[in-house]
């Protein structure tokens, strides 16, 4: 094996670790080259969306299920920490993790009966759940503030160091995103992840091989709900204001589109999908006015021409071309 081949083999063998290292380095250095508060605000929003999409991709891409209700868990995390810190005057950090535990319990109670369903029935059930939560946030004025929203959440802080600027919040929110990324990468490489992959391929075959399919679906559903709850709490403390419109059924649909566009079953694709769909309205003004139509069109095009998602589809095409080129070279 030549030195060049050894280098390529080393990179291939440690590609995940190198990818995480380079991504972490880019995140750490980004504020040094771009300190515009508006730009940092957008990248922070991408990080918040990425946390939700990472968890949702575990449920959709690896467990092979469908959810159109994760906007509700996002909202429960946001309003839960807002009520705890403003109404009950509790410390932000314990409130955020306490709310995540309550959301996990709620997702468990919801998931046990709902995950008996599959396909379109499961999608409609989760969509109905999101509609109920959104209506509750909208109508319960004396608790949630109703259509006027809820404000006054204090910034997160460690001692006297408050995350009260876009730069400081950048490191906090991307730190959470990296932690969720590492958790997701390790999960899919573990025995649990292989069981989820088998479940996604064929639930009956997975059960025959000894995978507790029902338990696996509930567990990954709860984990994805915790991811969404943490993202909601970060969202509330970042902006200091929340309203029900940020957690409606269209928000849940956008999260599902981010998963599909980035690539179902692709952890890195989750980051790409969250970044692309979050930035599109900023790049082209028409996307802001007709966002739902444009997102729907993107989803249809991706499903028609790259059903694996953009990242997964492009990677598969590159692998195919490299294999064909190697075959031609070997024949020559």
TrEMBL record:
InterPro entries: ABC_transp_permease, LivM-like. Its main location: membrane. Keywords: Cell membrane, Membrane, Transmembrane, Transmembrane helix. The chain crosses the membrane at residues 12-33, 45-64, 71-90, 96-115, 122-140, 169-188, 220-243, 255-281, 293-315. The keyword Transmembrane applies. It is found in: Cell membrane. It is a multi-pass membrane protein. This is Branched-chain amino acid ABC transporter permease. It comes from Desulfuromonas versatilis. The gene is livM_2.
């Amino acid at each position: 094996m030549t030195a060049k081949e050894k280098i390529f083999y080393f990179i291939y063998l440690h590609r995940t670790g190198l990818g995480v290292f380079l991504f972490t380095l880019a995140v750490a250095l980004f504020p040094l080259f771009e300190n515009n508060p508006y730009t940092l605000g957008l990248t922070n929003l991408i990080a918040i969306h990425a946390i939700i999409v990472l968890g949702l991709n575990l449920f959709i891409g690896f467990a092979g299920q469908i959810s159109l209700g994760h906007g509700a868990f996002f909202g429960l995390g946001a309003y839960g920490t807002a009520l705890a810190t403003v109404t009950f005057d509790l410390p932000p950090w314990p409130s955020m993790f306490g709310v995540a535990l309550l959301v996990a319990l709620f997702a468990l109670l919801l998931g046990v009966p709902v995950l008996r369903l599959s396909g379109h029935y499961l999608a409609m059930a989760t969509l109905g759940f999101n509609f109920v939560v959104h209506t509750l946030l909208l109508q319960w004025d004396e608790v949630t503030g109703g259509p006027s929203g809820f404000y006054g959440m204090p910034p997160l802080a460690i001692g006297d160091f408050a995350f009260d600027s876009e730069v400081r919040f950048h490191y906090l929110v991307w730190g959470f995103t990296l932690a969720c990324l590492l958790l997701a990468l390790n999960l899919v490489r573990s025995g649990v992840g292989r069981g989820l992959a088998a479940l996604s391929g064929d639930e009956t075959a997975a059960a025959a091989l000894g995978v507790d399919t029902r338990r696996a679906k509930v567990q990954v559903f709860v984990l994805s709900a915790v991811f969404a709850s943490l993202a909601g709490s970060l969202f509330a403390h970042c902006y200091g204001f929340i309203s029900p419109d940020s957690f409606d059924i269209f928000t849940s649909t956008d999260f599902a589109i981010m998963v599909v566009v980035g690539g179902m079953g692709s952890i890195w694709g989750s980051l790409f999908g969250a970044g692309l769909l979050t930035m599109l309205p900023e790049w082209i003004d028409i996307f802001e006015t007709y966002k739902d139509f444009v997102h729907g069109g993107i989803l249809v095009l991706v499903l028609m021409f790259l059903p694996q998602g953009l990242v997964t589809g492009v990677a598969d095409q590159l692998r195919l071309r490299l294999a064909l080129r190697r075959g031609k070279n070997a024949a020559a």
